[in-house]
Amino acid sequence: MSPSARPTLYGALRRFHLRVALIAVFTAGTTLTALGLAALRAHADHNLRLVARSIAYTVEAPLVFRDEAAAEETLSLIAAKEDVAAVTLFDRDHQQVSDWRRHGQERFPALRRVAGELLTSGPVDQPIYHESHHVGSVRVAGDPVALLHFLLKGILALLACLLLTSLGAHYLSSRMLVHIIDPVRNLMRVAHAVRSERAFGQRVPPARIEELNALGEDFNVLLDELEAWQDQLQHENRSLAHRATHDSLTGLLNRAAFSEALDQAVLTAAARGQYAAVLYLDSDDFKTINDRYGHAFGDAVLVGIAQRIRACLRENDQAARLGGDEFAVLVGPLRRAEEAVLTAERILVAMAEPILLANGARIVAPLSIGVAVYPVHARGGPALLQAADAAMYGAKRQSGATWRSAEVVTPG
Amino acid sequence: MLAALLVAVPLAAQELPPAAAPLPRAESVARVVMGLLSYARWPVERETLRLCVDGGTRYAGKLMEGGTLSTGRLVAARPVDVMAENTAPVCDALYLGAMTDARRQKISADLAGRPVLVIAEEDFECEAGSMFCLNIRERQVSFRVNLDAVGRSGIHVHPGVLQLGRRKLPAA
Predict the structure, then answer these.
(1) How far apart are CA A69 and CA B33, in angstroms?
(2) Rounded to an integer, what distance in angstroms lies between the CA atom of residue A402 and that of residue B164?
(3) Could you tell me if A311 and A363 lie in one domain?
(4) What is the CA A269 to chain-centroid distance, rounded?
(5) Which among A310, A336, A399, B80 would be 20 to 30 A from B158, CA to CA?
């Protein structure tokens, strides 16, 4: 089905309203007109009989005296004022004595005949008595013009009412529909925005109609829940992502993330023709601390070491805990290879201060540092790390609490 | 019976015979006079209505036969001479011919205030004594009414008849 073939809610409701209103008015109008016509017809019949009786009384004497002029005068005098088309006076032997016809009856004779047959129950015959002797009769035919006028006016009024009603229904339904259509459209708009733009912050405004308002409120509550759910999901995603790349104890990068960052730094440095350095750090007597004070104490020392290292880094440098008491620092793009050594010395100085622990103990945890510089000592990330590792062992073997540079790779 | 009439009248009316030939004048006169009598009520009603016909009338031939009113009352007609006798005690109605001043005076003297219905054959003015004055023409007999005379006589006449008699006659 094409979209244009689907009626809108507004159009459907409006058409429905209009149809109901028109049917109601049409039914009421036709019923009233028919009832009115029936009543009027009965009234007209009654009136016709009354006129016939009145004529009968009045022409009694003229008929007895066979005064045709008087009879005719009487007929015209009475009939002209009533809704009467023709009056005929007969004597006792059914001979016509007098006849009166309304002027202007010549127009539309067929229409008049049909209307007369449909709207009146035919001419009325009224016998005329003089002292209970039958002296003649009068036949009175009604004039359907009055009924025709009524019928015509009824139909015109019906049409006018239909027109007025359709206008009124249109206006009222438009006014009423605003209260239905606007909330529905708001609901549609918000639902669409949520679906296509993930705009969970949108809310449906309150509606006037109870059910629509309840629907909108429920929808808003649903949106609240969706928004909270979405926030939580995002938070968990971030948390998971953080956990995947960071060491849970110290908050430094883990080995995998550090390897990635190292590879990236090597690529950047290669592209810019700069240096990048890796420091490999290892606690000199962490094993002793662990054995003496316990693992919880050891963890606290590790956290303290991590804080010291982080405090000594520049903005672009990154620190990682590779595992156990082994740490690594990636020193960002360097213009000179010697700058890496400055960082290592800063860390050594910092570590000479004892670490203050929560239980008040002060622990000095010296580090041995191996320094490897790209592209001096190695050209790849893993190789660079390996070279720094080897240099760290050299420093440890030498005395501990010092740094040592990696061996220069001899080309060839 | 009324229903039968209502049915019978339209049936009969549909086959109208050609208009009847005008009646002879004497018959027309008799018919009008009988009609007038049928519409009149006397202070004291008798079983038989006494109609007196004066000698000098021209169209009283049929009237002299008497007859029955539509009310069923019998009408007994007899000739009188108004100049010779007092008609008041013996007549309920009096049909007069041509009038003279002498006859007028006699009639006024005899009948003033008495319940006698006076019908004049030829009294166009219809002012002295006569209550109803006929106007006899070729095709029709009509009449005029002297309301004063009717009122004085004590005879009650149906208003429809008075109405008919008060009409202005169409120019002949």
Answers:
(1) 18
(2) 159
(3) yes
(4) 54
(5) B80
Alpha-carbon torsion (A58, A61, A63, A66), positive or negative: negative
Q: Find the domain containing A333 and state its range.
A: 255-405
pTM: 0.55
Domain count across chain A: 3
φ/ψ of B78, rounded to 5, equals -150, 145
Angle at B37 between CA B9 and CA A59, to 5 degrees: 35
Please give the structure tokens belonging to residue A263: 């590879």
Which amino acid appears at position A303 of this protein?
Answer: V
Q: Is B172 on the interface with A (CB under 8 A)?
A: no
CATH number of B22-165: 3.40.50
CA distance A33 to A25: 12
Would you give per-residue pLDDT tens digits along chain B (172 residues)?
344 434 333 333 344 444 445 568 888 889 889 999 999 999 988 889 999 998 888 888 888 888 888 778 899 999 998 888 888 888 999 998 887 888 888 888 888 788 999 999 887 777 767 889 888 887 788 888 888 888 888 899 988 888 888 765 544 3
